[in-house]
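User: My collaborator and I are trying to settle a disagreement about how two of our proteins should look. Neither of us wants to argue from intuition anymore, so we agreed to look at predicted structures for both before our next call. Could you fold the first one, then the second, and keep them clearly separated?

Assistant: That sounds like a sensible way to settle it. I'll keep them separate. The first protein:
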Amino acid sequence: MLVHICCSVDSHFFLQRLREDFPEERLVGFFYDPNIHPYGEYRLRLLDVERSCRKLGIELIEGPYDFERWLEAVRGYEKVPEKGVRCEICFDRRFETSAKKAKELGEKRMTTTLLMSPRKSQEQLKRTAERFRREYGVEFVSVDYRSGGGTQRQQEEAKKARLYRQNYCGCMFGLRMQREEQGRLACELFSPVGGETLPGSIEERLEMYEKRLDLEERGISYEIVREKFLNYRLKFGWVRQKKRTVPSYILPYSTMKRRYTKGKVEREVAGVYLFNREEIRFLTLERYNRLAGRAYGSIGALISDPPSMEETFGVRRSIGLGPWDLSPVLVVEEIPEGKLEIFIESEHFPDVREKLVLL
């Protein structure tokens, strides 16, 4: 039986139940989810599904990540709520590809772990599957493992196996609507120009779960703990003088109340230049290099290859800014004289992230 897999939390318990109820079937997992975005999240979910299937002794096949084709298929339905037409189109694509794969492998039956998801309509899934049964001749096995305490057992198994627990379905449109309802920034869709790993980002989680696999392979004990922290995302920013942009690098956690201000640098204190608005600090690139132990030749080089967040926090500490200080810090090649315009659009918000603790 081919089992379309959407994520490890839904598949781990589901595969265990399938093996109990269909002992005569050889189960083959098929991870085909081009709706998952961004790609780092796709890699993270696949990584955890691979780990889950290894633990269960289930063969796993990865389907193509044809995200662009998926986008084209759902065009025009971006604002439709979850469980609506967009989801049916999404199921169509995944079921059709899964049915083709089952037929290619000579499998006469298929099912999907989407049946475990409380975010999905089982009736909607059955309707979609029935269309492809008629077209491809592959029987769809519809099972309900959610009722009768199944969802609770699923969560217990996920916790026991220390699976990655994603906090959104996977589709970027569903994510945006979910975050809007929560009054939160969809920070999963932000990627910095320089490619640095931001706190609480998908990239940070992916690095952590890759490290987790390495620890398990080496037999090193660990725990995954959650912590609350102040997250931050820079959306947009610039420094201008006489309508010309001044090359600048805005350090993380730089926050302005009104986003836009005018003023000038008033004085220098211990190598830090103080602006007369919004508690803004300026550093020359030379000074920044000394504080960070770097040798950037230009602001462009700093933007395209920024230091780690730990190094950035070190620079903020070295100029007297504490761990709760949101004062803007801007790096420029030379301190401009005269009137300046500064624009910084950013958000900081309470968030939760996971950390590995070695035992």
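The second protein, kept apart from the first:
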Amino acid sequence: MHGPVVPGWLLVALCAATGSYCLLRMRSGSPSARSAAGGEAVMGFGMAAMAVPAAFVSPPPWILTAYAVVFGGAALRALWLARGGAHHLHHAVGSLAMVYMALAMEPGAGGAGHAGHTAGGVPLLTGVLLLYNAGYVLSAGVRLLPVAAAGAQGGAVAWGARPELAMACRLSMGIAMLAMLVTV
């Protein structure tokens, strides 16, 4: 990822922690909730891997193509699962945004790659993705408030089944997506 090293590592830590909690969420809940948590875990760990600062390690030339293939597959899976719920459409948009960022960072593919540290990508598409994710972050933040208040009144709930933590993970990944898109 382009940009300063310290914020890059903070983004890596945030995304890895979110992916780890999503793995924990896969142990409880309904099959559809476990499936959504699995998609979010892939997104969290993938975002963590892509956010590693370029100043720290120079990725092998094939890694950005691998990211595009993995997230392209995740997007197709999310589109297939979107028949049963709108949240999977968000997963599809997020996965396609990751494909876009991987291709924009690809040297010689219109993007600047890690070596140049200059912006690449299509400004209109980047702007649309930024607006979408900003809207998602705002709506997730608003939805988090009533869930936290309702969770405080209930009894003991397992860590993997806490709705306010799941929403907080979605919010943090949305913020991380915004931070990554700004660097494109």
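Some points you might bring to the call about the second protein. Helices lie at 5-25, 31-50, 63-81, 87-105, 113-116, 123-153, 163-182. Residues 5-182 form one domain.
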